[in-house]
Design a protein that fits this description.
198 residues; mainly alpha; Arc Repressor Mutant, subunit A; rod-shaped
Length: 198
Amino acid sequence: MLWAWALAQITVSRRLIVLSSDILAPLMVRIAAGDRLALRELYEATSAKLFGVCLRILSDREEAEDVLQEVYVTVWRRADRFDPARASVTTWISTIARNRAIDRLRARGPLAKADPIEDFEIADDQPDAETRLAAAGDAARLQGCLAELDPRTQAVIRTAFFEGITYEALAQRMGAPLGTVKSWIRRGLARLKGCLER
């Protein structure tokens, strides 16, 4: 008994689906004959769905509205080409909307597929708080290790690495041979490394 009721409900549902899709087909005949009221009825029945299709593809409300207008102009001009044997009215006009939206997207050029600017993370050249804290800790350790070096080695390393002076200019400034200055720096860096690894 229950299965008979369910079968009857399915049959009624199928009829409603067929009727609802058949409701739009006569509008196409009237539109092909130049009936503006039929176009308005079609618009009222389908525009929300088609606008959704356009908006999903274009992600821009204004462009979706423009494309939607183009779709109904196309329907007005080509209604005589609609073949109910090949597709439902909804499928036919949805295909037109999809194709027009894709054409518009392609016309935008290579930036069309780019993410909207809101989705971009704008790079900040400044280090984040964690990096700054770690750097501050590292700097304090480095300063402590530099303080363990003799004053001459400390001065040579600070000048070479913090001021960016070449070894040749440093040798001239210190009044020492280039090889000697390089040796001071090399030994000083080895001691710094040992200190920082403790």
